[in-house]
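Anyone have tokens for Transmembrane protein? Sequence:
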Amino acid sequence: MAFNRPMRIWRLDPERMHHPEDPTMYDRAIEAADTQFRQTAHNLFCNNCHHHVAEALNHMAYKGRRNWTQFDVWWQLVIHGSFLT
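Reply: yep, here.
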């Protein structure tokens, strides 16, 4: 981890993905986001873990959306996230 270990998690509902019947959709979305972010430098404000997660959510069209942002990820963590111990 570049800045710290994860402190909160937001459990996704597989039924809210674009093709919930496709068990590989989640893995392929993460792989696509990983491929994109593998070639970029991460920093605190402009390109961080929340951007990376937003990109994966966009690839899986989570909740029917393809416009997730770092703010959206942060907000979902605030309202739906749980702390890790």
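Residues 26 and 64 are 14 Å apart (CA to CA).
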